[in-house]
Here is the input.
Amino acid sequence: MKNLNRHHSPAREIACIAVVVALLVGGQVALSAVSGVEVVTILLLTFSFTFGSRAGVLAAVAFSLLRCFIFGFYPTAMVLYLVYYPLFALAFGALGAGGIKRFARFPLWAAIAVNILLAITAAACAVLAATTILKISRLAVVMVKTLLWVIFALCTALLVVFNVFYALQRSGRLKSANTLSIVVVAAVAALFTICFTLLDDVITPLFMGWGLFSESSALYFYTSFVALAPQTVCAIVTVLLFFFPLTTIFAKVR
Here is the structure.
C-alpha cells in the first residue's frame, strides 16, 4: 500500500475522512453501553495505516470534537481525546508508510522492541493478577484479574507467534510479511490502549485538583482497571480479526 500523501485527490480524501469520522462517532455511540467493547481503535488504526498520518490525524481531531455534541463537552475528556487520538493516528500512519511490504525485511532492532513491548505488557498483567496490589471491591478484583490473565495469555501468544515467524523470515523460509505485520500492529494497539487509561489517570486527577499521589487519585486509578482490561482484550482481538479486511477495504476506497 502506498501512502495517500502521494498522488491523491483532496476531495476524495476529505470525503473519506468524513465517512470515517461518521463511522467512529456512530460506532462509539452504538457500543457506549457495553463496557470495554469499542470499534474506534480498529477503525482509526486501519484508516491511518492505509491513508497515512495526515488523514488519520484530521479524522482523529474531527472525531474528538464531534463526539462532544453527543457525550458532552467535558474538559478532561476533550483534552484526553485531543491528545491521545491524534498521536495514535500519527503512530499508525507512520507504521503503515510503505504498506505491508515493509515488514518483509523486518529489522532486528524493531524485532527486539516488539519483544520488549510484549514481554513488559505480559509481565505487568501477570504481576497485577497474581498479587493483591489492586485494592478495589472483591467482585471487581475477580473480574479484573481474570481479564488480566486473558491479556497475559494473548500477549504471550503474540510473543511466541512473532518470534516463530520472525525466525522463519530471517532464515528465508517465510516470504509473506502478513503475520509479522499483524502481530506488530496488535502489540502497538495494546500498548496504546493501556496508555489511554494511564493518560486519563493523570489528566483527570490534575484537572480535579486531587494531586497525582492522593487517595482519590489512587482510587480512580484502580477503578480504571475495570475498563482497561476488557478494552485491551478488545483491541488485540479486533486487530487480529479485522486488520486485513479493513485495510483491504480502505485501500480499494483510496
In short: Residues 1-6 have pLDDT under 50 and may be disordered. The first helix runs from residue 10 to 30. Residues 10-253 form one domain.
